[in-house]
Design brief:
By secondary structure, this protein is an alpha/beta fold. The protein is built from 14 helices and 24 strands. It has a 4-stranded mixed beta sheet with strand order 22-23-1-24. It binds uridine-diphosphate-N-acetylglucosamine.
């Protein structure tokens, strides 16, 4: 298993470009199952989760051509298998995204029930209740969700709690349902909006994308389209935090500044200097004193849970004390014990972490527990004195494209050790 070795203490300087968003790519790939027309997608990131989704779709019968320059071409004219097997779903929960499209287009699907995972129990009851409201027959046997429907019909459904992939699953299913579907308390994440834009380009009738009420008028069929995936706001903000943490000066291109308001506001409140050069370009500097702040994660447009671990590192090195409250997932402080091993002063009480800023962190061997936690350990390593050796970095490859190459381009001392 690969490890990452970081020698800390160098300010990040230079320019890098942000990749396409993982969390937009996965639903858009699944959406291609709604049509037998060809989809052409650009700005797809090279990530393990994307490979897993491509593999899953290959099992269903998708023919997917990947070209470094031209993008991804998907031909779903030969879909013959409707089962998402345990082996793939257990490595990536977002595999559940094929459920809505397969059911809506082919009237049947069998998906392994996603199991527990490192950041809480993460049920899928909203996905199932929503599809049932649209007329699907669903039963659970031998660890599989088995869903059937001759044709889904429009329905009114209220999400409780708000769920990103749940909204995406029902949105995709509703595009081919008979009649109108109204989804309330829907997720407003930019990745949901990106999916809605792709579906609209395929011929879907969707109103309200980006608001908490989505109104979808079902159509009889969808066609192929071209779609350019939105930029990854979590990757962008991770690099912004890294720049502040190392007192660096970093220029980020191909970002969508509007999707980064919550992290920009927090970083500015901490004392970072952020210049919006234009709506796709940012400069981040962190050379003054960084002050601790309180932070609460919440669904978009609130502060993303996917940046909580990285912000915990920054507050650990700030002046003062900050209280970080995780409201989206239970049990999402697994990284704290690893950060403590590097000298961070963090106390966890339920879903709250009390972080007292320390003057420094010290490098140590640490272990990545999930995707965003592993990013936080890389950030801690960049700021720490001495060497940090991070194991189980396969987690980071799920969601960050060539992270060590991008950091090296910013003058970090970081290398991957294959093993
Ligand atoms: C998506 C993102 C993930 C991000 C998360 C929250 C993708 C592929 N992944 O995950 O990176 O961290 O949003 O922003 O886009 N819940 C239920 N019942 C359900 C579904 C969810 O109770 O049927 C709960 C979950 O346990 C969690 C909360 O709702 O507490 C939010 O989860 P959700 O938005 O569904 O996360 P994902 O879509 O899995």
């Amino acid at each position: 298993m690969d490890k990452i070795l970081v020698r800390g203490g160098r300010p990040l300087t230079g320019s890098i470009s942000i990749s396409g968003a993982k969390n937009a790519t996965l639903p858009v790939l699944a959406a291609s199952l709604l049509t037998t027309g060809r989809l052409h997608l650009s700005n797809i990131p090279h990530l393990r989760d994307v490979t897993t989704m491509v593999e899953l779709m290959g099992q269903h019968g998708s023919a997917i051509t990947i070209d470094e320059k031209l993008g991804v071409e998907i031909d779903n004219s030969q879909i013959t298998n409707f089962t998402a097997p345990y082996e793939l779903v257990s490595t990536m929960r977002a595999s559940i995204l094929v459920m809505g499209p397969l059911l809506a287009r082919y009237g049947q699907t069998e998906i392994s029930l996603p199991g527990g995972c490192a950041i809480g129990s993460r049920p899928v009851n909203m996905h199932l209740d929503g599809l049932k409201a649209m007329g699907a027959e669903i039963d659970l046997t031998a660890g599989y969700i088995r869903a059937r429907a001759k044709r889904l019909r429009g329905a009114r459904f209220i999400f409780d709690p708000v769920t990103v992939t749940g909204t995406e699953n029902l949105l995709m299913a509703a595009t081919l349902a008979q009649g109108q579907t109204i989804l309330e308390n829907a997720a407003r994440e930019p990745e949901v909006v990106d999916l809605a834009q792709c579906l609209t380009a395929m011929g879907a009738k969707i109103h309200g994308a980006g608001t908490s009420t989505l109104i979808i008028d079902g159509v009889d069929e969808l066609s192929g389209c071209h779609h350019d995936i939105i930029s990854d706001r979590i990757e962008a903000a991770t690099f912004m935090i890294a720049a502040v943490l190392t007192k660096g000066n970093v220029h980020l291109t191909k970002v969508n500044v509007d999707t980064l308001r919550a992290p920009i506001d927090k970083l500015v409140a901490m004392g970072a200097q952020i210049e919006e050069i234009d709506d796709r370009t940012l400069r981040i500097q962190g050379n003054g004193t960084i002050e601790a702040i309180d932070l609460e994660t919440s669904p978009y447009p609130g502060f993303p849970t996917d940046l909580q671990a990285q912000m915990l590192v920054l507050i650990s090195l700030a002046k003062g004390t900050g209280v970080v409250t995780e409201t989206v997932f239970e049990n999402r402080f697994m990284h704290v014990s690893e950060l403590q091993r590097m000298g961070a002063n963090i106390r966890v009480r339920g879903n709250t972490a009390i972080v007292r800023g320390s003057p420094k962190l010290v490098g140590a061997p640490v272990m990545a527990t999930d995707l965003r936690a592993s990013a936080s350990l890389v950030l801690a390593g960049l700021a720490a004195e001495g060497e940090t050796l991070i194991s189980r970095v396969y987690h980071i490859d799920r969601g960050y494209e060539r992270i060590e190459e991008k950091l090296r381009a910013l003058d970090a001392d970081i290398q991957r050790i294959s093993g």
